[in-house]
Every structure is written in structure tokens, then in C-alpha cells.
Q: What sequence folds into this?
């Protein structure tokens, strides 16, 4: 149920990616969005963690 949205960001010599994951709350059932800016190699781990 994860929404994958990845945008590439370039700042100077570093290449970064912004990842947005849709997470469902166990209490209310509502969806929230979790955003993170990270190295492109870490994006898969971000989406796979529970």
C-alpha cells in the first residue's frame, strides 16, 4: 500500500532523493505521508521498512 514518489535533488556535488511514503495509522485507519530526503541508495530500504 505504499505510494512511491521519488524526486531527484542535486545540491552541489551531492545527489539526493526525496522519498514520500503513504502510511496507514493502525488506530484511526487514516493515511499519513512520511517524507525524507536521503541518498538514492537508501530509498529501497526506506520503502521496505515497516
A:
Amino acid at each position: 500500500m505504499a505510494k512511491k514518489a521519488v524526486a531527484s535533488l542535486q545540491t552541489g556535488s551531492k545527489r539526493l532523493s526525496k522519498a514520500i511514503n503513504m502510511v496507514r495509522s493502525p488506530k484511526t485507519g487514516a493515511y499519513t505521508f512520511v517524507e525524507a530526503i536521503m541518498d538514492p541508495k537508501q530509498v529501497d530500504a526506506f520503502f521496505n521498512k515497516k
Summary: The mean pLDDT is 81.
